[in-house]
What does this fold into?
Amino acid sequence: MSLSSKDINLILNFLNEDTCGSSLTFEQISAQFQHNISTSDYLRVGNALVLLLQNRDLVPTPQQRLIILFLFNDMYKSEPQSIHMNPFAPVFISILQNNNGENLSTQKHFHWFISPVTQHERWFVKTLINNNNNVKEFLKKTPNQILQTGLPTTKDDSGKDELKEKIQERLQQLPVLVQCHLPAVIDDPEVNYYGFDTLIGGPRHRSNDSRQTIERLLSNNAMEQTIHPEFLRLVPPLHECTIDELVWLSPIDYDSSLFTWDSTLCISNTINHEIRQLMDKAYQGALNLQQQQKLLDELDNDPNLVYHIGLVPSKLPILVENSPLISIQCLLKLISSNQMTEYLSSLLNMDMSLHSMEVVNRLSTSMELPQEFLHLYISTCIKTCEETKDKYLQNRFVRLVSVFIQSLIRNKVIDIRDLFLDIQGFCINFRHIKEAGALFQLVKSYELRNNNNDTTPTAMISTPLTANDE
It folds into this structure.
């Protein structure tokens, strides 16, 4: 990705050959750089500066190179990691090497082709990576003042070998093909050798040409292009290889019987998505007839769909109140589920209502519910009627419960003998209500039949649970 014209102009102003040595201190350069360039662009700008540093004719003066080396360190000085994690740490290693054969081998290993530098530049880099007290003094100086400073008499190579070792460890983690590359932009060796750039036009003409060249290079993506080897392989044979033939770079043979291709993998299921959306609406309120019928039809077409629509025991009470028919259909599909006990427990613990009793009544006629669940549910309904303080609401609950219990008795879902005392007490307490009286008469008639050993079967009837308000 190329740099913007704003970033290019900022870099060119910093590296102006005529003024870069004395116009700004390093502290001022840092402030302007961080103010005008965002953190996300540091790597792109750094790559551009590496391109300039690799071509000595573009930054021929030590002042320019000092500014570039300073920016490499300044861009990542706030990072908590060590200096070896700086993306441009290999440049520092190349700078710190001497000018003999060791320098060439190091540059080849780290893939940074940096032109020879002066002793002041090498001392400057060594001070930056050691982060000693001299760095604060450097910030207040201009590049010219750094070059005029006397060099230390003692040679201090502390930290260089350790930094080099850490960088080598980090580079070994990269693929080999990534490490083998050359920059796409190289200078013309004949120009550097014969000095044509200095003979024609003088320094001012050279500066103008360098500026134009830098602008053209940084305005396109040449700085991020590299020349690297391609991983080539022989074309595999058309026929199967025999044992004595060459082993090709191809997948290992495997037994096809161990694998089965799943044709439904990564294929979007729009039906499931629509059903989940309808279920989400059902949790929020009642569905219209068309939506409810579509949901019921899809559940009938795919029995396993109920496991993928987000129905969990905790959401069952909401679904029962909003869409009892859908709740019944879902519970019937979940009969074989290992969570069926949890769904029944959720149904048992929810507040008593017409819809909850309708669901239990319909389930009892379609499947065999546990007797313990039915007994607990009836006891909970009777207890709710007794504890309700509002007379109107209490009468309505009593009528609903009476009709509900009558339906269970007629369909022989429950054994009246197990709940005879509870139902009889319920009927006596609310004997002034017509439905409770009818339930009492039904209980008495079944008691007489049992006493007479009358075992005539009765057809199962799903009685609608309704109660007319008096």
Strands lie at 182-183, 226-227.
